[in-house]
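pinging the channel bc i need a second pair of eyes. not urgent but kinda urgent?? the chain im working w is below, pasted from the shared doc
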Amino acid sequence: VQLQASGGGLVQAGGSLRLSCAASGLSFSTYNMDWFRQVPGKEREFVAAISRNGANKYYADSVKGRFTISRDNAKNTVYLQMNSLKPEDTAVYFCNAYRALSYWGQGTLVTVSS
């Protein structure tokens, strides 16, 4: 199983980024997907989750109204649209596929400058 996250980078506060996570080696449409983020020295924290068919979405309070999670099961890809970015959103972002087991991608760095 591979989860390849991409789309991170450096952006000014108030800007936007779109993260992608391409999955392979698993039956993508049968997995719930989520995004977590981690700042060095801190615990990994939940950002957003989406159900297998995309009907249900959940967000951390800190990103609600600014971030949108979506998925394209035909492309085996989950996305995270991040708008109105803040410096405190700076972190490595990881995608996760979970069912009975959980699989993690390698992470993509998002840096938001003030």
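so The radius of gyration is 13 Å. and DSSP finds no helices and eleven strands in the chain. — does that match what u expected or am i reading it wrong
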